[in-house]
Amino acid sequence: MFSSIPILADASLFPILKIIAFQLGMIAALGAYLSSKQQVLLPKAISKSLAWGQFSVNFLLSALLLCTQYHPLAAAIVTLVIVMLSWVVLAICAPYAPDWRVIVPAYSAVLLATALMGGAHVG
Fold first, then answer.
1. Residue 97 sits in which domain range?
2. Which of 15, 3, 10 is nearest to 122 (CA)?
3. Does 85 reside within a domain?
4. Which residue among 11, 27, 39, 69 is least crowded, i.e. fewest CB within 10 A of its CB?
5. Tens-digit pLDDT profile for the chain (123 aa)?
6. Is 10 helix (H, G, I), strand (E, B) or coil?
């Protein structure tokens, strides 16, 4: 799909593109989480239209970056799994560390380490 774009066809950039796609998926999930009334990281929930707008854009960008390496259906499923895993980790960890400066880098590191653990076969 993107093989005609030279920068995206370079195999040496695949790990970097995967990490960027992973981070975009986590940012998408974080924004959607912060729009919930039950979130505990911010004093007040952010606007739903802003949060779901950024969710849509980041989800799409993440899936498009993963399309450079995987079949489009597989890329969409991987992106969905990233978002769902992010929501689970946020829902479990956020009540125990209500300061966002602690929880967001920690959950990013844990999810990134989980994705990189399987090498080329995960994420």
1. 6-121
2. 15
3. yes
4. 11
5. 555 555 555 666 777 888 888 889 989 998 999 999 988 888 899 999 999 999 999 999 999 998 888 888 988 898 998 899 888 888 887 777 767 677 778 777 877 776 666 555 554
6. coil
